[in-house]
Model the fold of this input.
Amino acid sequence: MKTDPIDILKEHSLKHTKQRVRVLEEIALDTVAISQPELEKKLGKEIDRVTLYRILNIYEDKGILHRIMDMNGTANYAICSPSCSEEHHHDEHVHFNCTNCAKIYCLDVSVPQIKMPEGFTATTMSTIAYGICEKCNVTVLK
Ligand SMILES: [Zn+2]
Ligand SMILES: [Zn+2]
Ligand SMILES: [Zn+2]
Done:
């Protein structure tokens, strides 16, 4: 998976501005998703809220980031899989929301296919598992 912000922007033919690169840097840094308030806190000095919001929307539209709502209804963002493109997200993997550290992980596990009732067309499916993550399990067991 590409994590160099400049490469990602180039690939999606987006102009790279300093602010856009900074947002991607923060999100690509970790394997876990980052919440919008956390991003605001980290980038608040460099990027105002409105600009940040706009950048996140562009990235979501372009298939660079996907949004995951956590149990409190807060938006979290993670880098998309390489198969995502504009208007076509393919992030049908299970998300894991740790109830101890509140982190959201993108798991390498596909969302189970569920047969829809007649007349219903599902375009996307999301599954969030709640529980204790790998890191917290280790600390809890100690
Ligand atoms: Zn995506
Ligand atoms: Zn945890
Ligand atoms: Zn994900």
Notes: Residues 63, 66, 80, 84, 89, 91 surround zinc ion (ligand 1) (CB under 6 Å). The domain at 5-141 is CATH 1.10.10.10 (Arc Repressor Mutant, subunit A).
